[in-house]
Design a protein that fits this description.
single chain; alpha+beta; 25% helix; 41% strand
Length: 595
């Protein structure tokens, strides 16, 4: 929408919501770059083009203007102007959100009442059935209770059959209604959460009913038509990766459906525009942070209690008279006058007050030591979405397709029978595509059956990764009871030696051979007097991962074997634990170290 300005005849005024969005580049870290197009006619001489009602999330330092046509851009300025509340669209949006919040709260109240009513009906129905099945009791004169068995005549049997039919139908209806109510309440709760977030953002975005606008001064030698491309960065926008991993065992294929979930609450809608998803991180600098010099000094001597108490007394007097900025000088003067050495904590006490706690010391120390989050920001990748999309400013996730990645997986099995006596199948594949798979949630489908939700780790092109596909019932794992026997030796200092023998059997009932890795614990001694000796299997080189039997960094035994079709294999772990007879062994377990 274009209108004439009141200042001079060569002013053209446009409103941002009426100007088409040419393209949007969405970043992963809470921002996006929006490019809008403005087409207008210019008169000979100097012209001013004003674009009003820009997003409240705009970064004024990011505005960039390019043009197509015989004109020169002389100046670009940004300004914020206050408007009356009746003319502000923020009020309309706030009213819509508040009305919708009221409706959702009313819907939730109705659903809660209905759920309570259905639950009460279910309790009454179950109570009636329980009372019907209870035997009758009578009490004689001596107070002894006796049970009376009902006579199952034809009428009673027919009545019970009718009741069971009624009970089954009513119970099924109530269960279905309760299930549907639970789903409806979850949906309403999600909508309430979104509306509440949007209300919070809208209230924060009102900012005194400010209207943000860009003024562009152009000069041309003749009347002409130009197209201005106005780009700017907005916050409150991001994208996150999401995947559907589909594995087909018969064809030995893996398809990864790569999606981007876009969320934005910038206050402007991106309608039918070209989208690009970038892995760049504009908020992280393009250069590494500076590294200072690490100095070594002696630790300061600790004050005795009398010195510490006198420092606190001095603090109270100084606090009442001087501001925080001059306290450092007072600390130095106090040190020289009293000829004492203050610890950093004592100095902080004199600067911050008696009420400063250990948490305060920690916070100040954190502020004094510069830290930076390490991320790759030198290079980035942008995924251009082929189809135009519409992303409204509703802070909800909108899915766009990035790519379909076809891979050739290899299937292997893993089992930890001591924890779960099942074999878990996994697909191992190499990312042969040009797409970098970023960390994000993934739904896993195995032969068109949903098997699990997982999290995709970061996988670069040409990098190998694996994906768990759940339990394979065709591979059976039998964890047999452990056998152990104990013997004592020694005359003066007696020792006890306990030998353990664990048998694990793997049965392959599939029509093809399977490769499986079996993990089993071998205890690790943390005491010099406790000796653990591995007797079976024999492991010569613990660090050789290519061996079929090996020991990992967690001191666990791993067997890597291939079991032919319709056959079984037994594995044996045998070890002894020797310790003084006068001591009892306590078994504890630590978390597994990541590979």
């Amino acid at each position: 929408m274009e209108s004439e300005g009141a200042e001079h005849s060569n002013m053209k005024i446009f409103e941002a919501p009426d100007c088409p969005v040419v393209s949007v580049v969405v970043y992963q870290q809470d921002r996006a770059e929006v490019c809008r197009s403005v087409v207008t006619k210019l008169e000979k001489g100097e012209n001013e083009v004003v674009l009003r009602k820009l997003s409240h999330s705009i970064d004024k330092d990011s505005i960039r203007v390019e043009g197509k046509g015989p004109a020169v851009i002389n100046e670009v300025t940004f300004s914020s102007k206050y408007v009356v509340s009746q003319e502000s669209q923020d009020d309309v949006r706030l009213k819509e959100l508040k009305d919708r919040l009221t409706e959702c709260q009313k819907d939730k109240k109705v659903l809660c009442t209905k759920k309570h009513r259905l639950q009460k009906q279910r309790v009454v129905l179950d109570g009636f059935a329980d009372n019907l099945m209870k035997p009758s009791t009578v009490t004689d004169k001596e107070g002894t209770q006796a049970c009376l068995t009902r006579v199952l005549d034809r009428d009673l049997l027919e009545g019970m059959t009718g009741f069971f039919d009624l009970y089954d139908g009513q119970a099924a209806r109530l269960d279905a209604d309760l299930h549907q109510l639970s789903m409806d309440m979850e949906r309403v709760d999600e909508e309430l959460a979104v509306i509440t977030r949007n209300l919070h953002k809208q209230n924060a975005a009102k900012d005194g009913f400010q209207s943000r606008e860009v003024s562009i001064m152009l000069e041309t030698r003749e009347e002409c038509e130009v197209e201005l491309l106005i780009s700017y960065v907005v916050t409150n926008a991001k994208w996150t990766p999401k995947y559907d991993i589909r594995v087909f065992s018969q064809d030995k294929m893996m398809k990864i459906m790569y999606y981007g979930m876009i969320q934005q609450s910038t206050g402007e809608d991106w309608i039918d525009t070209k989208l690009s998803l970038s892995t760049a991180m504009p908020s992280v600098g393009g250069s590494p942070p500076p590294l200072g010099t690490q100095m070594l000094t002696f630790k300061p001597k600790v004050l005795n209690r009398s010195h510490r108490d006198s420092a606190h007394v001095m603090l109270k007097a100084v606090k009442a008279k001087y501001r925080f900025g001059s306290l450092r000088r007072k600390v130095s003067k106090y040190r020289e006058t009293h000829n004492v050495l203050l610890t950093p904590q004592d100095s902080l006490c004199m600067e911050m007050g008696d009420e400063a706690s250990e948490e305060d010391y920690g916070n100040v120390a954190d502020l004094e030591v510069p830290t930076a989050e390490v991320r790759e920001s030198v290079t980035s990748t942008a995924y251009e979405i082929t189809r135009h999309s519409t992303i409204p400013s509703d802070n909800l996730g909108h899915k766009v397709s990035v790519a379909i990645v076809d891979l050739d997986p290899v299937f292997e099995h893993d089992t930890v029978p001591k924890r779960v006596p099942h074999a878990f199948v996994k697909a191992i594949a190499k990312n042969t595509s040009q797409y970098a798979l970023l960390p994000g949630p993934a739904n896993v489908f195995f032969d068109n059956n949903f098997v699990a939700k997982t999290v995709m780790r970061s996988v670069s092109p040409s990098e190998e990764f694996d994906c768990s596909l759940g339990v394979d019932p065709s591979v059976r794992v039998i964890y047999k009871p452990i056998h152990k026997y104990r013997e004592q030796s020694g005359i003066i200092s007696k020792t006890t030696t306990t030998t353990y023998r664990q048998v694990i059997e793997i049965k392959n009932t599939r029509q093809d051979a399977v490769k499986i890795t079996v993990h089993e614990q071998l205890p690790l001694s943390s005491e010099e007097k406790i000796k653990v000796t591995l007797q079976e299997p024999s492991i010569k080189d613990k660090n050789d991962k290519s061996k079929p039997v090996r020991m990992n960094k967690n001191n666990n035994i791993e067997w890597y074997l291939e079991i032919p079709s319709c056959s079984s294999h037994e594995l044996v772990l045998k070890y002894s634990v020797e310790h003084p007879s006068s001591e009892d062994i306590e078994v504890t377990e630590t978390a597994a170290a990541q590979a």
